[in-house]
Design the sequence.
């Protein structure tokens, strides 16, 4: 017999094994739900599959009586817009701060401890101040994501910039580059795919902040809906929403990975990392 | 003077009319009438909405009588209770798991939103059976999680409000309502609070808001199904669910009822209790030397507490105008 | 006047004396090869020529002027590794050299200038034998091809001096021989001044027109950093000798 | 003039520059606070420095009237215990799951997609289920941290394990190692310092979950206190608590870094990463 | 019977034929050096000897039995890089070899066994010249010392065959010469069977008792993977010839 570490499953086996835990969880859920419902048909914690179907039908396929829109579609597009905008702003800020931080010793000396301290501040704890500064509108939700995510991105990018081999920067100088043109032509292009990687890693955090922000002040959005129906413990709505959020997160991650490969064919990091 | 105003509201049975008024253009209709603009901003986090009001982000905000005293008033923001729209008449309650009377709460952990009206209700309930807060342990629990929390084995007692309250009572045979706000009618009041200074400079704001409010009230009194359905949906439930919540809410559909309540002598007595409770729990502000530190003014001109530090004013001016049809 | 004038030059890092009392002149068109034991300061010397480090004491002149104290366009460099930009194609790498040189604000060229640069780039790539790989990324190139590219990149800007720090150290012997031919060819054709550090004595004899051997002459076992390295040999290598003779001599010495 | 990128500040300049942003923020705060207090002396949003001093005195130095304990000390120790326990359990779980995941192809085939999906589920959204499973006590708070942090750690460790050079694993096999002894003697020791690194990176997330957990149901803890006093907008308590949390996070990060260097002298990663 | 018997062996990766119809025997005590152009399948061949890869077709026997199809203790290996465990000291690295071999459950030895292992470890470290660095971590060692350690680690378990994949490729020439002396010495003293891949023709002549040259004999430009490499030369290298003669011949060929 070969060592366990040397045994490799065939493609079919791998697929089957990969699906297995999902199936197990599924079966487990159905059994647990049936048991609870047998005891109390009104139990809301683990609704039956048919309740999910109804809830999805109600939320996704029937226009709201109040506004005539599909709640689910509205929620999704509102949340994705906030998330997208928040992450985009964070990424741009991270470039604007992270590159000088990693590249210019004077900037590093000045900002590095401050950014490190800032990244440790739990944004949830200073919400009142954040809302005063950013208001209660869309801006506030996006701002919470930005405040939560930017320090992480900045620190990662700073690290990545300072990892660019000194040889390359010296070489660029001998070719006549100034600090500015070196940033433009050497640092920025090399750091871009790393930014994509960092964004992928911090996306989970961004979702957490988005959901928190929507729970505090919003009138639509995936997090808002979950928060709204949570008081009634409407798990028939919450669980499909959670599944949907998970799926969206998965897709965004996948798309970012693919675009990294597409946009930066020279960058193998994206491949290695998965 | 300005002509654009923002008022924050939160999802709660007694405040859902504001959403309807906004959605259906009733607010803007009334605002137009007085030549101003009013935006009602929905904030999910109730406390955050009051904090923002206290910090000056909003001109008005919905809140309970107790929170009006402990947050804006204690922060030095002179506030006026413009409309007292309803009081809780069973909307807040104490639940015991597998126990049937209030006195059995002794020694239990009670899950509730600390320092909120639930806390106050519990204190009143304990008082009613000769216990005090020392006889229980309060566990601060976020209101959105109450229903889920109830299913957990550690939770044996709870104080909460609707819709969580009825949600728990209907779905759990073990849940017994041992005390509720119908035992202390008129002590938990849901109101619209407006910054006093803004109000003084802009009586139009008060007129428009009061007008809009009582327009919706008249619809509700008629039992307008469309209006009620919309309110139900916005609060995440259905018509039946919303109606059952209304049943335990003493809504003042008529301006005259609201006026009567505002002018009653019970109000100052209630506020005295609330003030004492708040002082005991250290939420009147750290500088407060006693429960009378913050002054409260009532419609008849009486003042409770420090006359030089009046920060909360219960007024009946505009409700009276509504009652007299002068809006 | 010499291209590079060095007189009584010292280099210390704190207490650590790396180079001691160096004196030498390098003329235009020379091909100096630098050898010496590991850690004796060859790279440090090159760094000073590059402007990355400054001497602690002594005269250090380029064309009679004080050396610019940071890397500049007069001095091209080829390192052992990381010498090309992996986010650019072969062509892009050479273009970058010209764009950084000529465009001070955007680092990019347009129009006629760009067309000219393109012509120059293809020409130099042809010269280093990368004519058929212009659109490849460095990761698709072998180590030898990457070093060719790095050389092309440096040469296209016509530096006064070309500095090489063990440029072929990571290459296989077969490929190394090709590179030797290439660099000798370029040196003669462009009349370059070259300073090259190497670990390989063969290489230094084969390539150089002048061999500089760095070594510590005095050694204090208790304080190994007390004394720095000096130039122990400074051998002009005539063209008269045949390569084979040099090689045999070297090997004989090495094998002993 | 040298290029900006080549200019290095002296030690003194670097120190001064590093302190500068903190000073600026400080001055900014004082001015903003003074302005607000001039308008409304009872304003609670941006309290004066003396209010901070009073609040700290009250919370940290005066025993509570109700329990006779120092609130601040109680809160800190409760939170640190939860955090420590949560992170410890996460780390152990991550080792137990991450190593097989990275090391045994069959396990990877079976669990990798599942763990990836799991790491995308926002824990806040499925709180009701968590309450049922873990109850409402200490366990629930620790569990929330574990659930939030473990998938991140697992994915990182899996990655790290699969980055161990194949050469080393082959070498170990030629030396007579079995899958088990190779895990024990090669994989585990090499992965330990990486685990420390990962823990440092995920600590921010752990804090977020801790604070959220304490906001949901608790009777003490830093997050509890912040959410409680938010009910009367006592920023004079909240801001010192936030500063304290930031400081604690800083210290934990620092201690972890130092212990990595101490425990794993052969591991330079820790140094490079900062 | 030969130690290794190979008959009509093919190795393909999908459509890519790497090795074609290999036939050879390796006897106990031989020092085979493998050379050939890059990508011709030298490493693949070594991987098969190691058990990391299996031949597609053909006979492949070790001591008359089918080759174990995963790495095992009979076959020691030294790679070009990553060959030592950087979390262990020099001493710990060698101990690990014996502990993995003898302790099947904990991977650790105790008591008398440990004492014995300790003695053996110090002995072999002395033999490879690391006697004075036992407590250092690999990161504190030079490349050459790391390779010495890797060799010691493999030898201490007394493998039947020692496999080396360009073990000195990353070392400087001077250090490489030392390593040559070391490996020849160990080979003779322990009567090892060695198979070593190298890029360096000098090295292969200097070290080996038998030289195997791999190369593709047929080449289809349109389908470069259509044909695999074969053994084009299989030269026994007598001890009678002096090193210098071999060397000169090689250089003459190389320099041509
Ligand atoms: N930035 C520095 N700070 C302090 N000491 C340094 C620094 N750079 C190099 N040194 C020291 O200077 C000495 C010479 O180093 P250098 O890299 O020039 O040697 P080298 O001749 O290039 O060696 P090698 O052949 O290994 O490349 C060494 O002792 C090294 O430790
Ligand atoms: N796992 C694999 N899957 C597919 N093809 C492979 C694999 N491993 C090696 N090859 C192919 O087999 C051929 C031989 O590779 P190998 O590494 O054995 O060459 P080599 O002679 O060791 O080359 P080098 O001298 O560069 O080390 C190459 O064409 C390579 O692309
Ligand atoms: Mg050097
Ligand atoms: Mg190979």
Sequence:
């Amino acid at each position: 017999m070969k060592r366990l570490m040397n045994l490799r499953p065939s493609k079919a086996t791998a697929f089957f094994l990969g699906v297995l835990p999902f199936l197990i969880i599924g079966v487990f859920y159905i059994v647990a739900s049936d048991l609870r419902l047998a005891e109390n048909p009104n139990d809301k914690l683990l609704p039956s599959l048919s309740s999910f179907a109804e809830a999805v039908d109600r939320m996704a396929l029937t226009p709201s009586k109040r506004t005539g829109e599909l709640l689910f579609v509205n929620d999704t597009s509102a949340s994705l817009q906030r998330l997208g905008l928040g992450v985009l702003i964070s990424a741009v800020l991270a470039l604007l701060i992270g590159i000088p931080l990693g590249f210019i010793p004077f900037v590093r000396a000045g900002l590095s401890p401050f950014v490190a301290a800032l990244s440790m501040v739990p944004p949830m704890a200073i919400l009142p101040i954040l809302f005063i500064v950013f208001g209660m509108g869309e801006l506030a939700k996006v701002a919470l994501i930005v405040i939560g995510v930017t320090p992480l991105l900045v620190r990662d990018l700073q690290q990545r910039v300072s990892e660019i081999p000194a040889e390359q920067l010296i070489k660029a100088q001998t070719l006549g580059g100034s600090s500015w043109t070196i940033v433009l032509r050497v640092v920025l292009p090399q750091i871009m795919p790393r930014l994509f990687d960092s964004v992928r890693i911090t996306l989970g955090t961004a979702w957490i902040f988005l959901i928190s922000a929507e729970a505090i002040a919003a009138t639509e959005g995936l997090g808002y809906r979950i928060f709204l129906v949570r008081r009634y413990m409407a798990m028939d709505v919450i669980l499909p929403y959670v599944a949907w959020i998970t799926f969206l997160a998965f897709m965004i991650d996948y798309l970012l990975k693919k675009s990294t490969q597409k946009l930066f064919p020279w960058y193998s990091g994206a491949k290695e990392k998965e | 003077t300005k002509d654009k105003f923002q008022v924050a509201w939160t999802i709660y049975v007694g405040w859902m009319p504001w959403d309807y008024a906004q959605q259906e253009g009733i607010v803007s209709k009334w605002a137009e009438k007085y030549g101003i603009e009013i935006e009602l901003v929905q904030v999910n986090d109730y406390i955050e909405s009051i904090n923002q009001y206290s910090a000056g982000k909003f001109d008005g905000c919905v809140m309970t009588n107790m929170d009006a005293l402990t947050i804006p008033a204690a922060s030095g923001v002179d506030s006026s209770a413009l409309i007292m729209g309803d009081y809780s008449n069973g909307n807040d309650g104490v639940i015991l798991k597998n126990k049937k009377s209030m006195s059995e709460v002794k020694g239990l952990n009670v899950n509730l939103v600390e320092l909120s009206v639930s806390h106050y209700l519990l204190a009143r309930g304990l008082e009613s059976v000769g216990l005090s807060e020392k006889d229980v342990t309060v566990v601060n629990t976020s209101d959105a999680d109450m229903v889920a929390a109830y299913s957990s084995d550690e939770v044996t007692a709870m104080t909460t409000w609707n819709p969580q309250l009825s949600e728990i009572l209907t779905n759990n045979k073990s849940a017994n309502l041992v005390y509720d706000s119908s035992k202390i009618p008129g002590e938990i009041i849901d109101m619209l609070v407006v910054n006093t200074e803004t109000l003084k400079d802009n009586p139009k704001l008060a007129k428009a808001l009061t007008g809009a409010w009582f327009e919706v009230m008249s619809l509700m009194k008629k039992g307008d199904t469309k209006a009620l359905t919309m309110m139900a949906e916005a609060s995440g439930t259905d018509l039946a669910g919303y109606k059952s919540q209304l049943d335990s809410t003493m809504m003042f559909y008529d301006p005259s009822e609201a006026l009567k309540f505002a002018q009653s002598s019970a109000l100052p007595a209630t506020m005295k209790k609330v003030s004492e409770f708040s002082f005991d729990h250290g939420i009147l502000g750290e500088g407060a030397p006693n429960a009378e530190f913050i002054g409260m003014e009532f419609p008849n001109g009486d003042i409770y507490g420090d006359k030089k530090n009046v920060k909360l004013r219960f007024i009946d001016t505009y409700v009276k105008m509504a009652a007299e049809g002068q809006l | 006047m010499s291209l590079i004038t060095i007189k009584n030059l010292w280099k210390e890092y704190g207490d650590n004396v790396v180079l001691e009392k160096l004196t030498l002149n390098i003329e235009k068109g020379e091909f100096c090869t630098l050898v010496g034991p590991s850690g004796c300061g060859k790279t440090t010397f090159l760094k000073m020529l590059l402007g990355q480090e400054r001497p602690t004491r002594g005269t250090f002149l380029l064309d009679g002027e004080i050396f610019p104290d940071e890397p500049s366009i007069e001095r091209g460099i080829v390192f052992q590794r990381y010498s090309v930009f992996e986010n650019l194609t072969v062509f892009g790498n050479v273009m970058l050299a010209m764009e950084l040189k000529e465009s001070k604000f955007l680092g990019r060229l347009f129009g006629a200038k760009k067309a000219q640069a393109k012509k120059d780039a293809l020409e130099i790539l042809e010269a280093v034998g990368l004519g058929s790989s212009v659109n490849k990324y460095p990761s698709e190139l072998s180590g030898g091809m990457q070093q060719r590219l790095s050389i092309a990149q440096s040469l296209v800007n016509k530096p006064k001096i070309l500095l090489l720090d063990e440029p072929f150290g990571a290459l296989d012997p077969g490929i190394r021989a090709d590179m030797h031919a290439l660099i000798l060819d370029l040196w003669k054709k462009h009349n370059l001044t070259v300073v090259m550090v190497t670990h390989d004595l063969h290489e230094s004899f084969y390539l150089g027109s002048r061999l500089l051997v760095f070594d510590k002459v005095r050694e204090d076992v208790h304080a190994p950093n007390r004394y720095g390295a000096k130039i122990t040999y400074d051998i002009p290598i005539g063209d008269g000798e045949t390569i084979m003779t040099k090689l045999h001599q070297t090997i004989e010495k090495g094998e002993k």
